[in-house]
Design goal:
The structure holds 2 protein chains of 2 kinds. Chain A is of the alpha+beta class. Chain A has 2 domains: 2-76, Ubiquitin-like (UB roll); 85-156, Orthogonal Bundle (DNA polymerase, domain 1), CATH 1.10.150.120. Chain A contains 5 helices and 5 strands. Chain A starts with a strand and ends in a 15-residue tail after the last helix. Helices cover 31% and strands 25% of the residues of chain B. By secondary structure, chain B is of the alpha+beta class. Chain B has a 5-stranded antiparallel β-sheet with strand order 4-5-10-6-7. Chain B folds into 3 domains: 6-52, Uridine Diphospho-n-acetylenolpyruvylglucosamine Reductase, domain 2, CATH 3.30.43.10; 62-175, Uridine Diphospho-n-acetylenolpyruvylglucosamine Reductase, domain 3 (2-Layer Sandwich), CATH 3.30.465.10; 180-271, CO dehydrogenase flavoprotein, C-terminal domain (Enolase-like, domain 1, 2-Layer Sandwich). The chains are: A alpha+beta, B alpha+beta. Chain A binds chain B through residues 1, 17-21, 40-43, 45, 48, 54-57, 59-62, 64-65, 108, 111-112, 125-127, 129-131, 163, and chain B through 1-7, 9, 30, 33-34, 37-38, 40-42, 50, 52, 54, 79, 102-106, 108-109, 190-192.
């Protein structure tokens, strides 16, 4: 089926198989390999992208469902070679270890900050609950989101705060 | 790689029904896709045709009126329910249950219709719908019929829907609005997870209902109980409707025990 999709502001028209996921379409047909496939079943969040302004697991969306949609991926996060505030905060706070979860984390973190411009630690944990980091760098990821929202002082309350 | 299928996105109900009449069990309805596409990926379902209903005119949105109650159309997502002011004001139990369903980005796609049609014993929305006495409005080319959710689930992943029918709306009656309810779901972790057991308790007027998930082949609900029922009798009434199994997540005995714990805690909470 022929579809046309806007990705990071640019229009793409392609013929896709009906059973192709949006994730495979992005990665294999168009080369947007920043978005990752982890579990392929909506558990891990590595494939999170924006579709019409909402975060979705792209492994559970068909490419044909995205016909006419606007998609944003990690490739659109930096503008003109300059990292976004979130990317910078992830870098500075060592929130990236192997990097596999990072693209999805940044998509979800951006959505979280849109809803809660000054999120509490609890709100961060909840907003990122659909994104797994198997290096278990959650502490640093939470710190990065606190930093990006100008509230790194809250990180003191984070120590040993697991419940 | 997903199993091969063709794709249709009808714009009208008549177009949808004629596709379903033509294809029968070869077709599967796609709304959010968070269960369907995983089932196709795992080879549990092998539809020849996937019918996307998101563009069907009249299948979008939530409406509320003090006389008709609340109506969910089939493409309403869980996050739409969590943001809806009339749900918050009149049926907050639905938001409490929805909040426990999967993760934020899954809730952006997952629909309440899909959650009940999937008919998992651990459905998160079913306990609220059962407590609130909600009805399923089922449509096909032959017309519509209404089934109370108490009779909607017929077994593990089975419902009264035939392959040519669609769950066209979910109606929560006006008479159920404004009660006090609470939901508790036992999980292995604090984040998103399938439930080990789930219990909802709802008091409205002179009726008390208790619903449970993950503790029988289908989500279940007690008959209408008196609001001043003793804790022991409420526990006994709940025991009568559940029939849990032992599985990878826990034993039958643990499920029975935790349902009892939750009934006691939730009763105290809604009676406060």
């Amino acid at each position: 089926m022929k579809i046309s999709v806007k990705i990071n502001g640019e229009l793409y028209e392609r013929d896709v198989a009906e059973n192709r996921t949006l994730l495979r379409f992005l990665r294999e047909d168009l080369g947007f390999t920043g978005t990752k496939e982890g579990c392929g079943a909506g558990e891990c969040g590595a494939c999170t992208v924006f579709m019409n302004g909402k975060t979705v697991n792209s492994c559970m969306v068909l490419a044909v469902e995205a016909d006419g949609a606007e998609i944003e991926t990690i490739e659109g996060e930096a503008k003109d070679g300059t990292l976004s505030k979130l990317q910078e905060a992830f870098d500075k706070n060592n929130a990236v270890q192997c990097g596999f979860c990072t693209s999805g984390m940044i998509m979800s973190a951006r959505e979280l900050i849109r809803i809660h411009p000054k999120p509490t630690v609890e709100e961060i944990k909840e907003g990122l609950e659909g994104n797994f980091c198997r290096c278990t760098g959650y502490q640093q990821i939470i710190e990065a989101v606190l930093d990006a929202t100008g509230q790194l002082e809250k990180k003191e309350g984070l120590k040993y705060a697991g419940k | 790689m997903l199993h091969q299928f063709s794709y249709a996105a009808p714009r009208s109900k008549s177009e949808l029904f004629s596709i379903l009449d033509d294809q029968g069990a070869n077709a599967k309805v796609l709304a959010g896709g968070t269960d369907l596409l995983v089932n196709i990926r795992n080879g549990v379902m092998k539809p020849r045709l996937v019918v996307d209903i998101k563009k069907v005119s009249g299948y979008q949105g939530i409406s509320y009126s003090p006389t008709e109650g609340l109506i969910f159309r089939p493409t309403v997502t869980i996050n739409e329910i969590l943001r809806d002011a009339s749900v918050r004001d009149h049926y907050p139990l639905l938001q409490e249950c929805g909040h426990d369903l999967a993760s934020y980005q899954v809730r952006n796609r997952a629909t309440i219709m899909g959650n009940v049609v999937n008919a998992s014993p651990c459905s998160d929305m079913a306990p609220a719908l059962l407590c609130l006495g909600a009805r399923a409005v089922i449509a096909s080319s032959k017309g519509t019929r209404e089934v109370p959710f108490k009779e909607f689930f017929t077994g593990v992943k089975k419902t009264v829907l035939s392959p040519t029918e669609v769950l066209e709306s979910i109606v929560v009656p006006a008479s159920s609005a404004g009660g006090r309810g609470a939901y508790r779901k036992l999980k292995r972790i604090n984040g998103h997870d399938l439930g080990i057991v789930g219990v909802a308790v709802y008091i409205q007027g002179d009726v008390l209902r208790i619903a449970a998930s993950s503790s029988a082949p289908t989500p279940v609900v007690t008959p209408d109980l008196p609001v001043d029922i003793s804790v022991e009798d409420a526990v006994a009434a709940t025991r009568k409707i559940i029939s849990p199994i032992s599985d990878v997540r826990c034993s039958k005995e643990y499920r029975e025990f935790m349902v009892e714990v939750f009934v006691k805690r939730l009763l105290a909470e809604v009676r406060k």
